[in-house]
Amino acid sequence: MKTGQNIPESLTARLLNVVVLDLHSNQLKSLPNSIGCLKKLKVLNAAGNLLSFLPKTIENCRCLEELNANFNKLSMIPDTIGYELVNLKKLSVNSNKLLYLPHSISRLTSLKSLDARLNNLRSLPENLENLINLQVLNVSQNFQFLETLPYSIGLLISLVELDLSYNRITSLPDSMGCLRKLQKLSVEGNPLVSPPMEVVEQGLHAVKEYLSEKMTTGHHGPKKKSWVGKLVRYKTFNESTRNHRNTEEREGLISEYRSIEALASPRNLGMFSPRRFFLHKNNLH
């Protein structure tokens, strides 16, 4: 759909039944407030424009499943967007000027993919545990801005791919050792101290093992104890069996994990046995 720098408010009167709206690459400076009238809209592509904000009325598009606002000039996303767009499965806001993601993002329980790379993010929302269906998270290339990650990242029970590359992260939260479904982790371009690079170079298994060990043997202050409780409650961590050393089970785990794509070519794969830190489930990949 080709248009000028603005869309007339009255245009939506002719689009009430539209399901897919493609507005990409039109030099748009704003979206009309009346976009909230599009009650059947499932896909909105507004990428490659000059948008500095999204109208709050976009929250009324409650059937929206995919929102693409890549390559704009967004400095913020409506604060309450996560409370309303309950059916959103894919949110793409890469290549903008975002300083933060609203805390309500953590309420998007249907979300499967979140792409927020190439922004100016200073932090991520604290309460990520509600994102129970999130499979792909990309917050790479926020360069000098993103220095820390919330501990709740270890409660993303469906996470398969996590890209943290080219930020200023020095330490990965211990809780990430409990990301049982994680198959791909990218951390290059960070000044990592924990885990050290010699562990990172050994692959994803080694990283999980290191973080799990650190969580069980490290400092157990009030905050750490409360998070261990949460991890147990979300069935991502079983503290009571962390010292289990059954050889047959360990060998079985290595076999189950062979398909995982690691950070680099794993060396000495047989040395790592994360099963002692994770619950034994029949559906464990």
Structure description:
The chain is α/β, with parallel strands linked by helices and 285 residues long. It has a domain at 69-218: Leucine-rich repeat, LRR (right-handed beta-alpha superhelix) (Alpha-Beta Horseshoe). Helices cover 15% and strands 8% of the residues. The chain is built from 5 helices and 8 strands; from the N terminus they run βββαβββββαααα. It has helices spanning 81-84, 197-200, 204-217, 222-233, 247-256; strands at residues 20-22, 43-45, 66-68, 90-92, 113-115, 136-138, 161-163, 184-186. An 8-stranded parallel β-sheet has the order 1-2-3-4-5-6-7-8, with no helix packed on it. β3 (66-68), α1 (81-84) and β4 form a beta-alpha-beta unit. Keywords: Leucine-rich repeat, Repeat. InterPro entries: Leu-rich_rpt (IPR001611), Leu-rich_rpt_typical-subtyp (IPR003591), LRR_dom_sf (IPR032675), LRR_domain-containing (IPR050216). This is Plant intracellular Ras-group-related LRR protein 6. It comes from Manihot esculenta.
The CATH architecture designation of one domain is Alpha-Beta Horseshoe
How does the major sheet shape up? 8 strands, parallel
Query: Count of helices?
Result: 5
Please state the CA-atom Rg, rounded to the nearest Å. 21 Å
Mean pLDDT: 82
Count of β-strands: 8
Structural class: alpha/beta
Q: Biggest sheet, strands in spatial order? A: 1-2-3-4-5-6-7-8
Helix coverage percent of residues?
10-25%
Fraction of residues in β-strands: 5-15%
Shape: elongated
First and last CA, distance: 43 Å
Unreliable parts: 240-285
Order of helices and strands: EEEHEEEEEHHHH
Question: What would the CATH topology of one domain be?
Answer: Leucine-rich repeat, LRR (right-handed beta-alpha superhelix)
State the CATH class of one domain: Alpha Beta
The CATH superfamily of one domain turns out to be: Ribonuclease Inhibitor
